[in-house]
Amino acid sequence: MEGGSKTIERVGDILRALERGPEEGMTSGQIATATGFDKATAYRALVSLGRIGLVDRDTESRRFRLGVYLFNLGAIAARRFSVLAHAREIVSHIARETGDTVFLSVRNRYESVCVDCATGSYPIKAQTLTVGESVPLGVSAGGVAMLSTMSDADIRHAIQYNAIEISKFHSVRADEILAQVEAAQRRGYAHYAGQVVAGMGAVARPIRGPAGQGIAVISVTAVLDRLAPARVQLIDTLLREGIEKIEQRALLIGNRLETIA
Hints:
Radius of gyration: 19 Å
Shape: globular
Order of helices and strands: HHHEEHHEEEHHHHEEEH
């Protein structure tokens, strides 16, 4: 059993390396470096994953990429988030009302994954997040909002688990994340102002599941000039009202909002 679980962990490491790698794919050597596996182990795993469609290999460049079978798996997994279809209506509404860029992300263990985005009449020049992209909890307003719904032990474990990834964001430190989480718990919303991307800020609120833990988040991103205190309060009001509708709808239709714990 131990050998089987280690094999599964290796599969996860390889898929995450490909997810974070360049769009054109990666060589087996690059994947071995990214995962810490020896080249022979990485290559054997890639060949096996290719047989079941989780990865494919470009016939010309010979680089490995995420396989199309993942689209099928993603479509099936998305059914668990049927209530979040209503969240997309809210995301579009908030984008129209604020003119800013609004993101919907779901929690996947200790990361948040962007699943939708709506752009208002005042779009940001540099896109800070793309649909399908995952970021470690804590390095964005959305991640802080989700952390704020977790227990103290789980918050510290998530930050420790993400320590290496967090260190890549040079302007973000673990102790600052804890301070941001505490502030979000007091206010009910998270607010980053230039800590992650210079000149940019964001306001975010979590969507809670039945147990009260954040399983998704809506965040509004804008240039700092558009995030004066009074406007932050306006944005938070829109977020709070929209998320209340999402959570009430979940109760009304009896759907379970879930996350991958």
